[in-house]
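Please, structure for the following, as tokens.
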Amino acid sequence: MRARTDDPPDVDALIIQSVDVDALEKRIAKARDADIPVFLTSVVPEDTSDILGAVVVDLKGAGRLDAEWIAEDAAGRPVRVGIVAGAPGAASDLLVGGFTSALPDSAEVVAEAPGMYDPAEARRDAEDMIRSHPDLTYAFVANEQMAFAVRKAFDAAGAGQVKIVTVNGTDEGLAALKDGRFSATVANSAAETGELAVTNTIALLRGEKAEADRIAKTPLRLVTKDNADLVPLYCPPEDF
């Protein structure tokens, strides 16, 4: 593919990392008016007819995997769960919705706060959460960066017993699984997403992919201490 320039006709396609699809509507429309196909990653609008294709993270599925781990770990015991979400909007809402819908009947969500994908905000949320619910059993945190801050808040409050489940599968997150700071994470490799995005964009431009295959999914893997050494790197270092 050619690099983007100031001359729109030189652009074969745009690959856009999407978090809030509503915010992209005008850009997608502008690209369409210039006959530039748009390929999205992570999340897509409900109507995908205006985009070339996408590689999406199954956010509901990621939340569900963490909830299923809690169900297995709790083994039917009554448990209390706190949620530190991301920013209100499509991505976080899908993730949290997948998580809460898959929790067992024995799990009660006692607190939920929007961490805004900001570790400082997440730590304040966690401090309030553990103060109000000192008997908290599990915490679901919308990404690992916030989860580290939540862990520090819980530990400072003497709540080391709270088990944290989260999402990403970064090198730092896998290390936290191994030393017990996190109990589970859902790996969705950014490297795999990026590779699929480029490969599929080129294939669609060349007509090598069918219409039914325009929307692909990034592989998800539930990761614990037991299999932390077996997952692909979240973002492999560049080889210079």
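The radius of gyration is 20 Å. Residues 99 and 229 are 25 Å apart (CA to CA).
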